[in-house]
Write a structure and sequence with these properties.
It is a single chain. By secondary structure, the protein is α/β, with parallel strands linked by helices. It has 2 domains: 111 residues, Rossmann fold (3-Layer(aba) Sandwich); 127 residues, Hypothetical Protein Tm841, Chain: A,domain 3 (2-Layer Sandwich), CATH 3.30.1180. It is 37% helix and 26% strand. It contains 9 helices and 13 strands. A 6-stranded mixed beta sheet has the order 10-9-8-13-11-12, sandwiched between helices. A 4-stranded parallel beta sheet has the order 2-1-6-7, with helices on both faces. Helix 1 packs parallel to helix 9 and helix 2 crosses helix 3. The longest helix has 16 residues. The chain starts with 10 loop residues before the first strand and ends with a strand. The N terminus is likely disordered.
Length: 285
């Protein structure tokens, strides 16, 4: 996090489901993961590996919870007291978590210098808008300008996911329209799309290899003719993620301006289960 003082930029806040690359000027408020009744902060006390191990043990309970409004109040006041003229707080979809509601309650308490934005996604589907907001703030944009930069980035970002099974999404109630697929979940490999904040089925294939090939096809389709940044997410599948990133880079060529490969954190891990691979495409203006 950057230091603040007179003349410093608007501050940007997000949550721990953004999976940002290193070197960003963004404050991260963590969600909570609960494993068999023991709470820990996402990315601080609980790792994705621990969650994946717990999910594989059927008798272990794994749940998540949003940050309390007080956590956001503390973050906002600390940034404002340090000299930030305002705060833009960008969070994962309200359809997937109550985090943005907690942020909005905190903003109402702190005052009009805090603006809350629902990114309608998670992972770098949230991270790219947060980075765009931070870049606008660093360039001197005011509160309205930073918020507008985040919203414009949301409209230019597409999130696609491959999962080995819908079972973990079903358990957590996060699959939305994908529920229609449950009857055949054991015989297909679903490709999911985050559409206006909800997780829906985009396609389905019979094998993992076809699923990953289709995931790349859909990502290239989402890129269109634009220059893009791309993020590849995984859970316990680092080698497959690296191959996926290389395949995507070869397909996009010079249009790919930046790429990131990151393991998802404990909160998303708790809901998607082991084997996740995802691609987030962010189209440049």
């Amino acid at each position: 996090m950057i230091g603040y003082g007179a003349g410093m930029p608007v501050a940007v806040v997000t949550d721990s489901t953004a999976y940002l690359p290193t070197g960003h000027d963004v404050t991260v408020v963590p969600l909570t993961v609960v494993i068999n009744g023991v709470e820990g902060l996402d990315g601080v006390d609980v790792t994705p590996t621990e969650v994946a191990r717990a999910l594989s043990a059927r008798r272990v309970s794994v749940t998540t919870s949003r940050p309390a409004p007080e956590q956001f109040v503390s973050a906002y006041r600390r940034l404002l007291d340090a000299g930030a003229p305002g705060v833009v707080s960008i969070h994962l979809s309200a359809d997937l978590s109550g985090t943005v509601e907690s942020a909005a309650l905190a903003a109402a308490e702190v005052g009009e210098r805090v603006a809350v934005v629902d990114a309608r996604s998670a992972g770098m589907g949230l991270g790219f808008p947060a980075l765009a907001a931070a870049a606008a703030a660093a360039a001197g944009a005011d509160l309205a300008g930073v918020r507008a930069a985040a919203r414009a980035a949301i409209a230019r970002t597409t999130t696609l996911l491959y999962v080995d099974t819908l079972e973990f999404l079903r358990r957590g109630g996060r699959i939305g329209a994908a529920s229609a697929l449950l009857g055949t979940a054991l015989s297909v490999k679903p490709i999911l799309h985050v559409a206006d904040g909800a997780i829906v089925v985009r396609d389905k294939v019979r094998t993992a290899s076809r699923g990953l090939a289709r995931l790349v096809d859909l990502a290239v389709e989402a890129a269109g003719e634009s220059d893009v940044d791309a993020a590849v997410h995984h859970l316990g599948a680092g080698e497959r993620a690296a191959v996926l990133a290389d395949t995507l880079a070869a397909r996009l060529g010079d249009r790919l301006k930046a790429r990131y490969v990151t393991e998802v954190g404990a909160v998303v891990a708790a809901h998607v289960g082991p084997g996740l691979l995802g691609i987030v495409i962010h189209r440049h203006p």
